[in-house]
Amino acid sequence: MAAAAVDSAMEVVPALVEEAAPEAAGLSCLVNLPGEVLEYILCSGSLTAADIGRVSSTCRRLRELCQGSGKVWKEQFRVRWPSLMKHYSPTDYVNWLEEYKVRQKAGLEARKIVASFSKRFFSEHVPCNGFSDIENLEGPEIFFEDELVCILNMEGRKALTWKYYAKKILYYLRQQKILNNLKAFLQQPDDYESYLEGAVYIDQYCNPLSDISLKDIQAQIDSIVELVCKTLRGINSRHPSLAFKAGESSMIMEIELQSQVLDAMNHVLYDQLKFKGNRMDYYNALNLYMHQVLIRRTGIPISMSLL
């Protein structure tokens, strides 16, 4: 019912009527309010997309206030799909009404495909060619993924079959994307390859439902580097490596200076942050996944060397 109401609102919005000021006294008082106040009311969170569609069809002023690129539809989009907002830059021009429509359509398509999987593969495993319909989907892939995540996050034990197939489809979508990124990464010249980036791609591929990004992991490692620099500054405030800018590197030949860096690193990693090697469960896969190494502060030499 809610989806039908939103779809109805989407049909109402384009058919806006350009009329003179409304005759109803209450509405007349409303439209005479300052634009900032009206915008605040419309973005208060108490109105649904269907409500905004009806409001915008009453008069020209409210229609202009509810224009697709304005705050009103942006707030509607944010409230309904908050996890998608990280994909937009504050400087981007976005027609939020159109974006809302595209996301709504993608959600309906995703649910349609999940329902078809439930019917087609109820008594068997999904074959390799069973995902061919997904490859032909139109629209931003992140919208389909977001809808699948919404299905997985449905409360209680409802729609367990849908959740089962939504998880399979989400695994497929994300692993295919990560695999393409990993292939492109491996084709780069050795000088441009980053061991950390490669490790993150492997981490993402093996944990497609986890929120893992190179940016976040790099930020955590950068914070560790800052702690090491602070400690090194206390050991030797004139150490040449302290003059390096981010991303710069140079060989330091003096043994004493090298030892000072190692002392600072060991103090931060093992004394201050309590990182440790996993001797008791060396072959546990969690020792290799960078996001888990940073969370658990436990790893093995090959993963710890990337810190």
Automatic annotation (TrEMBL):
This is FBXO21. CDD domains: F-box_FBXO21. PANTHER family: F-BOX ONLY PROTEIN 21, SI:DKEY-261L7.2. It comes from Cervus elaphus hippelaphus. Pfam families: F-box-like (PF12937), Transglut_core2 (PF13369). Residues 31-77 form the F-box domain. Residues 217-307 form the Protein SirB1 N-terminal domain.
